[in-house]
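Figure 3 (text version): structure tokens given as input.
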């Protein structure tokens, strides 16, 4: 059938009601959001957003309501979609956005693709990777992996991806979303090493929409975290350590989940795997810790500094 592209959509969307099908690749994926309220009668008040791209650039795509439980887990980073009967809306301005791995990619920020169960009922097809043709011109998924030796020099709020060998996993903790709120965020502290520094990555991992992965993080697993944010300089303590926290677009992967993921082709991931092959498993296991209270950022050594 006749296809359109994202660049053409942005130029012509105001003058059309029906749009030609789109062929796009998912580059980023958000956590699943529940927006239900007692007074609103929506059967499945869920929403998830994705950044999708073709040869012309990148645009946000929003999955609504009952389409979320049906499609959310099938739509992975790297998945190619054929979309028909979708709607185009002006972009929601306050949404967080993933940082593209390819800084040269054009971003269409004025509009977004809206996938609904009706008005119009969207048709979604997942194209298997082996059937994707090079002539379609779909971009590859690119990452921003950093090593631990590079971390200290990065600015506050910098967006990056990391891979490491887990040496410490803290217990799951809760923090209130807002003061006096009944809603909590669930998170845990994790340390991971990559051989480039004496210091580990300190990771504040909030439970994303991957409970099966979040609950199974344990020492000696290979951990990949994407779209992490650098947190720098929060305390006056000179011994303070920089750490990384998850964003709305973060994805977490552990041993058993890596097969077929696009990041396995990344050079820094391959370097890390080479380093792990040179390590003694017994020596590393002696340094691992599970659970316990983990105060962070750490208080100063003495009351005088405090």
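Below: residues designed for each position.
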């Amino acid at each position: 059938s006749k296809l359109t592209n994202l660049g053409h959509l942005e130029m012509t969307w105001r003058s059309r009601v029906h749009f030609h099908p789109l062929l796009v690749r998912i580059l980023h994926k958000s956590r699943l959001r529940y927006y239900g309220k007692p007074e609103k009668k929506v059967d499945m008040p869920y929403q998830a957003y994705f950044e999708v791209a073709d040869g012309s650039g990148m645009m946000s795509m929003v999955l609504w309501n009952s389409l979320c439980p049906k499609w959310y887990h099938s739509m992975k980073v790297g998945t190619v979609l054929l979309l028909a009967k979708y709607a185009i809306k002006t972009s929601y301005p306050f949404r967080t956005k993933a940082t593209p791995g390819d800084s040269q990619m054009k971003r269409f920020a004025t509009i977004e693709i809206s996938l609904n169960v009706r008005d119009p009922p969207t048709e979604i097809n997942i194209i298997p990777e082996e059937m994707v043709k090079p002539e379609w011109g779909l971009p590859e998924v690119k990452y921003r992996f950093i090593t631990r030796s590079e971390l200290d020099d990065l600015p506050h709020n910098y967006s990056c991806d990391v891979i490491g060998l887990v040496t410490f996993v803290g217990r799951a903790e809760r923090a209130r979303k807002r003061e006096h709120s009944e809603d909590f965020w669930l998170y845990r502290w994790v340390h991971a090493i990559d051989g480039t520094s004496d210091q580990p990555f300190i990771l504040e991992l909030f439970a994303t929409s991957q409970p099966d992965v979040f609950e199974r993080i344990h020492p000696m697993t290979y951990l990949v975290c994407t779209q992490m944010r650098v947190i720098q300089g929060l305390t006056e303590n000179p011994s303070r350590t920089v750490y990384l926290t998850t964003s709305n677009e973060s994805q977490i992967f552990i041993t058993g989940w890596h097969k077929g993921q696009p990041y396995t082709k990344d050079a820094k991931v391959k370097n890390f795997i080479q380093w792990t092959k040179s390590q003694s498993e017994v020596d590393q296991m002696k340094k691992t810790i599970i659970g316990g209270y983990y105060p962070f950022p750490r208080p100063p050594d003495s009351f005088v500094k405090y």
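The chain has two domains: 6-136, 148-300.
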